[in-house]
Amino acid sequence: MTRIVDSSWFYWAVGVAIGLPIGLVALTELRVALTRRNSGLARPVGLVRNYILPLAALLLLLIKATEVPAEATPVRIISTVLGFVLLILMLSGLNATLFQGAPEGSWRKRIPSIFLDVARFVVIAVGLAVIFSYIWGANVGGLFTALGITSIVLGLTLQNSVGQIISGLLLLFEQPFRLGDWVDVTSARGRVVEVNWRATHIDTGSGLHIIPNSVLAAASFANLSRPPGEHSISVKTTFSPNDPPDDVCAALTRVANALPHLRGEAVPTTVTSGSGEYTTTIPLRSPADDSATRATFLRWVWYASRRAGLRLDDVEDDFASEDRMERSMRIVAPTLRLNDVDQQALIPSLRLTRYGADEAIQTPGSVPKRMTFIVSGRVRLIARGEDGALVTVRTLEEGDFLGSSTLTREPVTGGAYALDEVTVLQIERADVEELVARKPLLLQEIGRTIEERNADVRRALEAANPS
């Protein structure tokens, strides 16, 4: 018994027998705690617990307890496996500590993945060289020398191609744009959907445009998404030089303020450069809204300029012809209880005009200055709930009218938007007052319409929000 205690292998055997279970239990608890916190260190700790600690214990038992020579093949095999697992642990630990939890915008977050792949390859190559050199006694110096000479030859032969790749990688490292950003380059304009070590993929809306990173690194381009919240577009229009500039600027700005993609509390502006040319600056939430906003603005300006009596592109509006006016009066006459004499007397004071699809005809809370009769098209009557959501009340069609509170001068509770191109006939407040003075039944009908519309709004809001 004394000889066993005095033997060196005894203490190694007892140490491994006691230390291995304790180490496994401690590493298991540590790994569970890191997993609960979603820490990136849970995987490296798992490698130590599952592979490194058992392999190290087995290696100690072979070398120290059973006194197997280090040159023996089983020892070398176990040492090689242990060294390879240590390499994996080092790579996993570096990734977890340096890059996995890197804050946005830091240099660690901006490093392209190919740089990390090359670094991993170098670490693995050096690690394997060390393992084969110290464990198996291999001469790796000649191999590194051959690789160095080969790299020099390939670098001189492919210097242009390699230079392009390096310039592209430097562009990736700088990261002047990110996935989802909108960029404007010489040959394309669109949203960045993919960036790899060789090329940048830009979705232009009409296809995928692939640009080599080396081309981007050597050229100038605009990142439309930076700084955030500062994007806007400029739309140019031309009016007759005889149109009052202040009236044109007010009309263009009014149309821009009604656009659905307008950014927050930002305010559009319109300036004139003379000779009938005007530039409207429209702040938007995202460059993705550019095309839709530009198209909607130009379409609404066409209708708004004719309603305001302005000559867009120096073209007169001849829509309100005598024939159209008479046909429109025949549609409106039953509602207003007009005979032929009343129609002929009222025609000179009427206004026939149009609204484009999705354009606002009446806004909630406004006080109408005229009654608007629908001649053709459809109009959606909406109301705004307490949470700001828009609720559809009903759809108005040919023969219906808006602005029933024109006489009472009360704010309307509902708004109205054109579902398609809508032609309307408008009657000013003074003419309506004169008309109802001669036709008391018409006044009662208008009052009943006001009550019905208010009741419709209340029912729509209650249905949208039962609570």
UniProtKB/TrEMBL annotation:
InterPro entries attached here? cNMP-bd_dom, cNMP-bd_dom_sf, cNMP-bd_ion_channel, LSM_dom_sf, MS_channel_1st, MscS_beta-dom_sf, MscS_channel_2nd, RmlC-like_jellyroll
> Which Pfam families would you find in this protein's record?
cNMP_binding (PF00027), MS_channel_1st (PF21088), MS_channel_2nd (PF00924)
GO cellular component assignments: membrane
The alphabetical list of record keywords is: Membrane, Transmembrane, Transmembrane helix
Query: Which residue ranges does the record assign to the Cyclic nucleotide-binding domain?
Result: 346-453
Q: Which Gene3D superfamilies match?
A: 1.10.287.1260, 2.30.30.60, Jelly Rolls
Chief localization: membrane
- Give GO BP annotations, semicolon-separated: transmembrane transport
Transmembrane segments annotated in the record for this chain:
12-34, 46-65, 77-98, 118-137
Localization of this protein: Membrane
Query: What CDD domains does UniProt report for this protein, alphabetically?
Result: CAP_ED (cd00038)
PANTHER family in UniProt: INNER MEMBRANE PROTEIN, YNAI-RELATED MECHANOSENSITIVE ION CHANNEL
- According to UniProt, the name of this protein is Mechanosensitive ion channel
Lineage per the UniProt record: Bacteria, Bacillati, Actinomycetota, Actinomycetes, Mycobacteriales
